[in-house]
Specification:
The complex is a heterodimer of chains A (113) and B (113).
Chain A lengths: L3 E4 L2 E5 L4 E7 L4 E9 L6 E6 L5 E4 L2 E6 L4 E6 L8 E5 L2 E2 L12 E6 L1
Parallel strand pairs in A: 2-11
Antiparallel strand pairs in A: 1-3, 3-8, 4-5, 4-9, 4-10, 6-7, 7-8, 9-11
Chain B lengths: L3 E4 L2 E4 L5 E7 L5 E8 L3 E10 L2 E4 L6 E7 L2 E6 L8 E8 L8 E2 L3 E5 L1
Parallel strand pairs in B: 2-11
Antiparallel strand pairs in B: 1-3, 3-8, 4-5, 4-9, 5-6, 7-8, 9-10, 9-11
């Protein structure tokens, strides 16, 4: 049972362009919606997160848009840079104990010059 | 960076041998987690701990056991390694505050021949 569907699997964007990654979920008990960024040879690191009581959150060039009724949230990277080239994961958290995350399958982003 | 150390960072072993991976934290966080990362699957939770000697299974726990005798250490054991357990293993920690993010170590690359 795939609770979290992430798309696209890979993405190539020109420098300065907008990167958009989407995440659809089934479990309405999720109560925290983070995006993680992972570079080769490293563990994932929290990039930005949103709670379900807001529809958008912006931190610098990174924005999360959240659509509760559609059970979707997306990551937008404005003015994409080569240093943004990494793998991105959505990983919503359930409301139960343990702060457990359910990871999407990841999106490999490459930003070209 | 969160104080998480995984050891070893790389290991090659043979089918049928026991393997123990160690995660050590210096943050005094309550929750600790073990994940495996495989292409096309994102990160999948193996086991997690919510306190000393308190552990629970994740979605891919078969063939793995864990122990936590001290707050700072969380051990993952493969009792009899199989080739299907070849993967990159990540440890993560989280405080017990609601909605706090998980912080990840840099992983252990395990190859079982």
């Amino acid at each position: 049972q795939q609770q979290v569907k992430q798309s696209p699997q890979s993405l190539i964007v020109q420098k300065g362009g907008i990167s958009i990654i989407n995440c659809a979920y089934e479990n309405t008990a999720f109560d925290y919606f983070p995006w993680y960024q992972q570079f080769p040879g490293k563990g994932p690191a929290l990039l930005i997160a949103i709670r379900p009581d807001v529809s958008e959150k912006k931190e610098g060039r990174f924005t999360i848009s959240f659509n509760k009724s559609a059970k979707q949230f997306s990551l937008h990277i404005m003015d994409s840079q080569p240093g943004d080239s990494a793998t991105y994961f959505c990983a919503p958290k359930g409301a139960g104990g343990g702060n457990k995350l359910t990871f999407g399958t990841g999106t490999q982003l490459k930003v070209e010059l | 960076d969160a104080g998480i150390t995984q050891s070893p960072r790389h290991k090659v072993t043979e089918t049928g041998t026991p393997v123990t991976l160690r995660c050590h934290q210096t943050e005094n966080h309550r929750y600790m987690y073990w994940y495996r990362q495989d292409p096309g699957h994102g990160l999948r939770l193996i086991h997690y701990s919510y306190g000393v000697k308190d552990t629970d299974k994740g979605e891919v726990s078969d063939g793995y056991s864990v122990s936590r005798s001290k707050t700072e250490d969380f051990l993952l054991t493969l009792e009899s390694a199989t080739s299907s357990q070849t993967s990159v293993y990540f440890c993560a920690i989280s405080s017990d505050s609601v909605g706090q993010p998980q912080h990840f170590g840099d992983g252990t690359r395990l190859s079982i021949l």
